[in-house]
TrEMBL record:
This is Holliday junction branch migration complex subunit RuvA. NCBIfam families: ruvA. Has three domains with a flexible linker between the domains II and III and assumes an 'L' shape. Domain III is highly mobile and contacts RuvB. It comes from Halobacillus halophilus (strain ATCC 35676 / DSM 2266 / JCM 20832 / KCTC 3685 / LMG 17431 / NBRC 102448 / NCIMB 2269) (Sporosarcina halophila). It is found in: Cytoplasm. The lineage of its organism: Bacteria, Bacillati, Bacillota, Bacilli, Bacillales. It comes from the Bacteria. Belongs to the RuvA family. The RuvA-RuvB-RuvC complex processes Holliday junction (HJ) DNA during genetic recombination and DNA repair, while the RuvA-RuvB complex plays an important role in the rescue of blocked DNA replication forks via replication fork reversal (RFR). RuvA specifically binds to HJ cruciform DNA, conferring on it an open structure. The RuvB hexamer acts as an ATP-dependent pump, pulling dsDNA into and through the RuvAB complex. HJ branch migration allows RuvC to scan DNA until it finds its consensus sequence, where it cleaves and resolves the cruciform DNA. One of its GO terms (biological process) is DNA repair. Homotetramer. Forms an RuvA(8)-RuvB(12)-Holliday junction (HJ) complex. HJ DNA is sandwiched between 2 RuvA tetramers; dsDNA enters through RuvA and exits via RuvB. An RuvB hexamer assembles on each DNA strand where it exits the tetramer. Each RuvB hexamer is contacted by two RuvA subunits (via domain III) on 2 adjacent RuvB subunits; this complex drives branch migration. In the full resolvosome a probable DNA-RuvA(4)-RuvB(12)-RuvC(2) complex forms which resolves the HJ. Its main location: cytoplasm.
């Protein structure tokens, strides 16, 4: 099994990134590949889930170990496949998702792409009590902090990168316009921060 890949980020596409190490390029599917824009042509470590079936082998990638672990848990839920699990992780943070499971908030869970009421109830049934270790938003070595002051140009560029990631998830131009307006009012952050804030804005709209 391939548990992580550490190498140079050489390519970012709508659904995947490519890490080059030892002369080999690994295609890794990610929930929001453009979150890694700041690391293009730099070395980065990606936690991976090696998905193996008779007719395919796929690497799914995650910046944080707990995202990978939650992905694995979601695959054990009836009605949730890799695509659905990845869509959930691209929409919400792990603590937020665990909180919804523990509170049995099926209305919140049905906001995720492809999740109906039956699947939401199944997630609660299968996962409640198993994920509470992730409720505290603990910091670890993989957490990235952005404390520098951004120029207006840098902030605008990061917001635009985040909006490209939202477009890749299927949001319309009208929704993107709404997200852009709201994100311009938010505090400074990374591309990842803006993607998460944008998703929260669109889920509430």
């Amino acid at each position: 099994m391939i548990t992580y890949v550490k190498g140079q980020l050489s390519l970012i596409e709508d659904a995947s990134i490519t890490l080059e190490t030892g002369g080999i390029g690994y295609e890794i599917l990610c929930a929001t590949p453009y979150n890694f824009q700041d690391y293009l042509n730099r070395e980065i470590k990606i936690h991976t889930y090696h998905y193996i079936r008779e007719d395919q082998q796929i690497l799914f990638g995650f910046r944080k170990k707990e995202d990978k672990q939650l992905f694995a848990q979601l695959l054990n839920v009836s009605g949730i496949g890799p695509k659905g699990a990845l869509a959930i992780l691209g929409t919400v943070s792990v603590p937020e998702f665990v909180s919804a499971i523990e509170q049995e908030d099926d209305k919140y869970l049905t906001k995720f792409p492809g999740v109906g009421k039956k699947t939401a109830r199944q997630m609660i049934l299968d996962l409640k009590g198993k994920l509470i270790v992730w409720l505290p938003d603990e910091q670890n070595e993989d957490t990235i902090f952005y404390q520098e002051e951004l120029t207006s140009k840098e902030k605008r560029e990061r917001i635009e990168d985040a909006l490209e990631a939202l477009k890749a998830l299927g949001y319309t131009e009208k929704e993107i316009k709404l997200a852009r307006t709201e994100l311009q009012k938010t505090n400074e952050g990374s591309v990842d921060d803006y993607v998460r804030q944008g998703l929260q804005i669109l889920m509430k709209s």
